[in-house]
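Model it.
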Amino acid sequence: MVKRGLILGSTAALMTGLAFAGFQVAGLAAFRNSPKELVDEVWQIINREYVDGTFNKVDWQATRKKYLSRDYASKADAYRAVREMLQTLDDPYTRFLDPEQFKSMQIDTSGELTGVGLTLGIDEKTKKLTVVSPIEDSPAAAAGILAKDEIFAINGRSTEGMDINEAVSLIRGPQGTKVKLGVQRGTRKFEVEIKRAKIELHAVKASIKETEIGKVGYIRLTQFNGNAANDMRKTIKAHNDANVTGFVLDLRSNPGGLLYSSAEIAKMWMENVTIVSTVDRKGESERLTANRQALTDKPLVVLVDGGSASASEILSGALQDNKRAKIVGTKTFGKGLVQSVHSLSDGSGLAVTIAKYLTPNGTDINRSGIKPDVVVELTQKQREDLSKDQDKLGTAADQQFVKALEVLKQQVKAQAQSSSGA
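Modeled.
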């Protein structure tokens, strides 16, 4: 699964492709000069791999005949045809990227992005362009953009019916330039101008909190990139060395990322259990399991919200179903699709949905999200305050964190009683 470069298709990043961080390309075909062959190349990949064998009730053979019967004068014509063909699947996460988009989507090992720091999705109910989450410390976060905000306009252009690729192209731009977004939050509409910038991504931010139950390890994980597992391993070990009594793992506004990264981090908390299963078009299931790599058995509480998606939902779902942690916050975003990324013959790219994933108990996250064990809703003002001043996260000013400490206290007490009884 790692070799195929599987990613979790919950989001479309507006920097250089956060949701695709660190993937390995699925394979390079020999270069072909004919634009028509590029169209067929995309068709063949979808035909082999797409998660729904009915192609969402599209006659895929007839689609091939239709698009290969055309003549294409240029690659641009072929690109338009490919996007049109993919739109018939009604799947915003199976998408074509021209060479420039594909190149900018890939994140190099420095962990630097250029953009505004937004991760987008298409709301399945409203079909609106929706913010999955702003990236921490990004221009979008500084501008006050929140998870679940709808983007109704980009530089004055309506996003009605706009796909993610087009939105990405309009929002992305050179460092130092500005983009104006029309935002709807509930019934309120407003505009915000954001300056594009280079964004340094630090997947793990951690500190040790002095509390009434002793030292508590607070770990905020902002994304599941290629370095997240290694950073998490170092942090857990450091907190264990500091003799913390328990942990609070903060996955709020974490839009996801690499499947293997989520699985590797899950293994650090659990022993010999199922982490997640994926189901492909044939109904065949593949399970990822924890295998004696746990670094700690100390009590754990996980914080989630509506901006926790994909890999965040895999991790929190595995911890919840295996009764390893209590989940506190609000229901997660609810996207459970796995994609494979292909490099096409001319340097363009294709992300194709190949599977859905289920929690250990068989929950289809793509439909329901992860429901917390303890629900703590924040007011609109509280959310905005935390978004504008993220130094307040994991403090007494953060009501969800305060509740997490209460729940952790109960777990620490229960573990102590269990040990005493034994």
